[in-house]
Write a structure and sequence with these properties.
single chain; 179 residues; mainly alpha; 62% helix; 0% strand; flat
């Protein structure tokens, strides 16, 4: 929605209102064109190819659109009518195909991040799940313990200092438990 004219305080002028409506219509039209292309590709029956994959415009566009949906290479290969190995070889053989594939995945990640941010206000667990699974986000907990000796070898002053910092004392070894 960055194509929309900026908002200002108060009522928009007729020109601003018209510009905003035109931008919304243009974006909807563009989205419908992309969706229509993918719908048309997916509506065709999937059959094995008799010819080798070539970096044609429709093939590259199909790869890019499916990558934007986080489709796996196996799924894209199925839509194109080839095996996963053939599709992988195609990506390795034609740099433009690899570029389209990588760009599609990056667009998908950016789109997901945008949706995650808007969703985070309403449904935090869903946002966390999506982030962990697709954006390589993870929970990190760090405990910094600078205690290098066993409690039995420490002085009373050292033990009191550790207790005042809130750092848990080292666990006793099994030999100490028996004594």
């Amino acid at each position: 929605m960055t194509d929309l004219p900026p908002r200002r305080r108060g009522r928009p002028t007729n020109e601003e209102k018209a510009a905003r409506e035109a931008a919304v219509k243009d974006k909807a039209k563009k989205d419908n064109e992309e969706t229509a292309f993918l719908d048309e590709v997916l509506a065709q029956p999937i059959k094995r190819r008799n010819t080798k994959l070539q970096p044609e415009e429709d093939t590259l566009r199909t790869i890019g659109e499916l990558a934007k949906l986080f489709c796996t290479q196996e799924e894209v290969a199925g839509v194109l009518g080839v095996c996963k190995k053939t599709f992988g070889n195609f990506l390795n053989e034609y740099p433009e195909a690899r570029e389209v594939w990588d760009d599609g995945l990056q667009h998908a990640k950016v789109s997901l991040r945008r949706k995650q941010l808007s969703l985070a206000d309403k449904n935090a667990p869903a946002a966390i799940f999506l982030g962990k699974n697709y954006l390589a986000q993870k929970d990190e907990s760090t405990i910094n313990q600078n205690v290098k000796s066993e409690a039995s070898q420490m002085t009373e002053d050292q033990l009191l200092e550790i207790a005042s910092r809130g750092v848990p004392a080292p666990k006793p070894t099994p030999k100490e438990k028996l004594n």
